[in-house]
Amino acid sequence: MNQPPASADSRISDSDALLIAIVAGEDSGDQLGADLIAALRRRYPQARFAGIGGKRMQAQGFQSWYDMAELSLFGLAEVLGHLPRLLRLRRELLERLIAARPAVVIGIDAPDFNLGLERRLREAGLRTVHYVSPSVWAWREKRAEKIGRSADRVLCLFPMEPPIYDRHGVDARFVGHPLADRFPMVGDRHGAREALNLAQERPVLAVLPGSRGSEIERLGSIFLDAAARVAAAVPGLQVVIPSANARMHERLRTLLNQPGLRWPEPPRLLDGQAHEAMLAADVVLLASGTATLEAMLAKRPMVVGYRVSPLSYRIARLLRMLKTDIYSLPNVLARASGLGDPLPVSERMQDDCTAAHLANDTLALLDDSERRGAIVATFEQLHRALQVDLTGHAGDAAAAAVAELIERNIAHG
Description:
Strand order of the largest sheet: 3-2-1-4-5-6-7
Structural class: alpha/beta
Helix content: 40-55%
Number of strands: 13
Radius of gyration: 23 Å
Keywords: Glycosyltransferase, Lipid A biosynthesis, Lipid biosynthesis, Lipid metabolism, Transferase
Enzyme class: transferase
EC number: 2.4.1.182
InterPro entries: Glyco_trans_19 (IPR003835)
GO molecular function, one term: lipid-A-disaccharide synthase activity
């Protein structure tokens, strides 16, 4: 585990002298921020932490100047509707941070809000860090230069990201992915099936068609149709469907009762419990996104599908915004690590994302135990690649990268 520099406490004797500002915009950022605060406090026990954060950060002694929910917006229409308020909040926060002169300002994710804030703070002479790189490997690599104008250092969750920034002269550090610290190398399938009251000897398919309403609307019927086809072809198959929240639970329940779906055995609709469903499964059928990383860390073979609106897809292609021909994070990581021959995850995107294709790919995986074993072995290697080392944690590595900037700032007065 990374240790604090020996000189840290001797250089900072006045507890009020060190203020570390953090701006987190949503629940995942709140968790990252809480881990980072805990690791930084081990280096600087008397440091003060303030800015914008949620309940987890506040439990670590963080002072949130504004409600984090004000930044937790999704979708262009929602952001546009709140734009005047967001701009006013950012202006007020900017003025408050410049007046406070923290040792460093760390923006966690929320790039639309944080990168503009960080750029202005940097222009005002403050040290800035952006924690969680936008997907420069997929969308407009040249954005790395713009991010570099905002942040003195970028903290990356994926090992293939720092080389991209390096090509554009931007200081970026791989600090490990926090999810890699939370998943064991070997998942407890037996325990997960027991927790979900599933038969141990029968095959299990976990189905995760997305966590947002728009995803359920686009993908829900397709994924459930695919799962019903698989269930009809695999005797004794147990299908489990986690729902992200109560609203998604009711929407999925409605879709399960739509005409035309024939289930040999009714699927289990779960309240949450996505991790347990993945661990219990032989194969996971899921929408592209962070859930694919979680399934990879659970070491479960998967089939991935996704669709965006036809207009959005055409615009992205027309403007050449998309810089990759693969989409799921396990495949991106496998290719970057030299483990992508063949790619471990079957992907069905846009017009190719049909119930027939998803069902056929899922059946092929269920029927091929040798292929599933090879995928699990690849996922184990990728899991290790997401850890900055085998003894430390992502929060400690991130704290070390931030502390370097703090110490540099102190050394230069």
